[in-house]
Every structure is written in structure tokens, then in C-alpha cells.
Amino acid sequence: MDQGRVVEAFRLEAGQLAQAMTGVSAAEWGLPTRCAPWKVSDLLAHVRVVIAWLPGMLAAPA
Fold first, then answer.
1. Measuring CA to CA, which of 1, 14, 21, 48 is 20 to 30 A from 55?
2. pLDDT at 1
3. Any long-range contacts for 54-58 (C-beta under 8 Å, 24+ apart)?
4. How does pLDDT run across 33-55, given as a tens digit for each residue?
5. How much is the pTM?
6. Would you state the pLDDT for residue 33?
């Protein structure tokens, strides 16, 4: 898969995640996830950190 297709797939996934997170209530942010011991807010924070690494990873040699 070429880099352009990877970026487009990621863009679509990120859009779906943003849409899903828009509907999360204040109480739901504190619920546990299947990634114990993380709560919903912890898991989203982790995803945001990893997303920040993406440009550097894509620019790095394979």
C-alpha cells in the first residue's frame, strides 16, 4: 500500500473516531475500556499521543 493510501485510510479512521467521541457523555469518559486499567479518557489520550508520532514514522525509512 502506498503512503497516500495509508494517509487517506488514516484520515477516514480519524474522522470516524472524532465522530464517535463527539457523542460521549461526561459520565462515559470515566468508564473502563477493554484495555484495562484505562478509562475511555485514558485510551483517547493514548491514541492522540500515537497519532502525533505518525508524521515522523511515515517520513522515516522503512
1. 21
2. 60
3. 54/10, 58/3, 58/6, 58/7
4. 999 999 999 999 999 999 889 88
5. 0.71
6. 96
DSSP character for 3? H
Q: Where are the domains of the chain?
A: 3-59
- The C-alpha R_g of the chain, in whole angstroms, comes to 14
The string of DSSP codes covering 7-61 is: HHHHHHHHHHHHHHHHT--TTGGGSB-SSTT-BHHHHHHHHHHHHHHHHHHHHS-
At 24-36, the pLDDT tens digits run: 999 999 999 999 9
d(CA 34, CA 26) in angstroms, rounded, equals 19
Amino acid code (one letter) for 41:
S
